[in-house]
Amino acid sequence: MSDFLAKKLSEIDETLANAMQVVTGVVTKVSPLEIQVSDKLFLTSDFIKLTSTVKKYQLKIDGVLMTIDNSLRMGDSVLMLKQQGGQIYYILDKEYAP
Questions:
Q1: Rg (Cα) of the chain, in Å, rounded?
Q2: How far apart are the C-alpha atoms of 82 and 85, rounded to whole Å?
Q3: Taking the CA of residue 96 as centre, how many other CA atoms within 13 Å lie in the half-sphere pointing to its CB?
Q4: Predicted confidence band at 96 (pLDDT cuts at 50, 70, 90)?
Q5: Chain segment 11-42, per-residue pLDDT in tens
Q6: In angstroms, rounded to a whole number, what is the distance separating the alpha carbons of residues 83 and 22?
C-alpha cells in the first residue's frame, strides 16, 4: 500500500472516530424518558433516539402473535452512540440484568 493511501485511510479512520462516541447511561425516568450520563448530564427525550432493541414490539411465529417487551425501565443501564457535537444519542441496547 502506498504511503499516500495509508495516510488517507488513517485520516478517514480518525474522522470517523471523532464523529461518533460510545457512552453509557442509566435510565432515571421512563415517562418522559431521561437518562443520566454523568453527575451533571441528564438527557431528555429531545436528545434521545430509540432503536428497536429497546422497544415493545410484536411478532408472529407459526401463526401465534407474541409480544416482546424490551422497553426501558428505571435503573436500566444503556449503551448509546453519541453523535458528534453531542446533540443526539442513539440507544443501541441495554445491559442484560437477570
A1: 18
A2: 8
A3: 1
A4: confident
A5: 666 666 667 788 999 999 999 999 999 999 99
A6: 9
